[in-house]
Amino acid sequence: MTADSSTEKPWGGRFTESTDAFVEEFTASIGFDQRLYRHDITGSIAHARMLSHVGIITESECNQMVDGLEDILADIERGDFAWSVALEDIHMNIESRLIDRIGETGKKLHTGRSRNDQVATDLRLYLRAEIDTLCSEIDRLQTALADLAEQEADTILPGFTHLQVAMPVSFGHHLLAWAEMLERDHARLRDCRKRVNVMPLGAAALAGTGFPIDRAYTAQLLGFECPAANSLDAVSDRDFAIEFCSAAALVMVHLSRFSEELILWSSAQFNFIELPDSFCTGSSIMPQKKNPDVPELVRGKSGRVTGHLVGLLTLMKGQPLAYNKDNQEDKEPLFDTVDTLKGSLRVFADMVPAITVHRDVMAAAAHQGFSTATDLADYLVRKGITFRDAHEIVGRAVLHGVETGKDLAEMPLEELRGFSDVIDAGVFEVLTLEGSVAARNHTGGTAPAQVRSAIKSVRARLDGRKT
Ligand code: ARG
Fold this sequence. Notes:
By secondary structure, the protein is mainly α. The protein has three domains: 12-111, Fumarase/aspartase (N-terminal domain) (Fumarase C, Chain B, domain 1); 116-211 and 230-364, Fumarase C, Chain A, domain 2 (Up-down Bundle), CATH 1.20.200; 370-466, Ribonucleotide Reductase Protein R1, domain 1 (Orthogonal Bundle). 60% of the residues lie in helices and 4% in strands. The protein has 19 helices and six strands. It has helices spanning 21-27, 30-33, 37-53, 59-77, 90-102, 115-151, 171-196, 215-221, 231-236, 239-265, 293-317, 331-351, 359-367, 373-382, 387-404, 413-417, 427-431, 433-439, 448-466; strands at residues 156-161, 164-170, 198-199, 226-227, 273-274, 356-357. The strands form three sheets. A two-stranded antiparallel sheet has the order 1-2. It has a two-stranded parallel ribbon with strand order 3-4. A two-stranded antiparallel ribbon has the order 5-6. Strand 3 (198-199), helix 8 and strand 4 (226-227) form a beta-alpha-beta unit. The longest helix is centred in the N-terminal third of the chain and has 37 residues, at 115-151. The model has no long low-confidence stretch (mean pLDDT 96). It binds arginine. Arginine binds at residues 29, 33, 89, 115-116, 119, 323, 325, 327-328.
């Protein structure tokens, strides 16, 4: 990066004094917006082609511009481009290099355009591409969850409410709960993409341009759904970025909750699963430690993504129409949101298939905590007792179990009959974990047969997205 104050500013004509050296640094965005280079060049090429299409520049001028811009792209990708702080941002860095390369013709590129519509276009092109990548990472994680769910459809663990043992559930069913949350996250990102995919170019600084431009043509070249309907709105609002950050914050909250379970389950106290060594780290002092760093970090990173959402909302709230320099502050939170989400999804999609499941520990835990108490109450209801009375009867049986250290299934028939004489030997079928889980055999229920059909639906949705 060069801090060469003598570099001529594209807007220098109106000024008599040069910019204060620190102000130059303070106002520059090139340090972070250089990552938009590819989208900036794509947008400029489309703009040049449109200018030639409507006859504002000649075809030969357009070809010079396109060749020059493509050469600049190659230079940047080769690492052969010296970014200049004096040239403020990605737009002026590239335009000025184009003028250096192709001379006078390069000075025509900015006809009918402003950095205001240019930056909004670059950001939308960037975000559209990133949303597509994020959606494929969600697909990959959902596939990993469906695969593990298939393998563990018959594995039973305690389901919790209030983190107290509630009812036995299939581990496959539990895993599919995460796949469902991710499905809605995917849908939110796809929906957000529709509003990202609208083109600001042509809005120019704020009011449009006097040149006879063809916005529909540029939009088509760039794959945008349509040009933005209002020039003031097009250059000023960043609601598409805020909406994206809101969808991203929700994905991170889901991953954070999932992380919390992985951390609990891999503790010595639960011991339901083991995370692969390759996704954990040790302690520099305690030799026995194997820490679940990956889920802990993802849980922690959900905080910064939520922070970026609040940051962008706050950035927007006081701005009068139209563009204000405040908007330059949209980039770092947006970029960090994309990077954080992409990294978190990637590491989860890689880690989930490598989880070791301790089926026997899960089953033993499900035998504790009277997880089949509701099954006993339902059994009594089927024998003609009202649910409230059945609840009371089972409550007394559980209290007896607590006092004697026995699970319901461990009490002999005569002992159980002491609580209600409608109980017969058939009761032990409903008191088994397998019986309890298999009984919940309706759409959305935890019966292994339902889990298998839910896996089919998840896979069908994933396959549908591939075509
Ligand atoms: N670097 C600026 C940004 O990120 C580009 C637009 C500058 N426009 C202006 N009128 N100063 O928003």
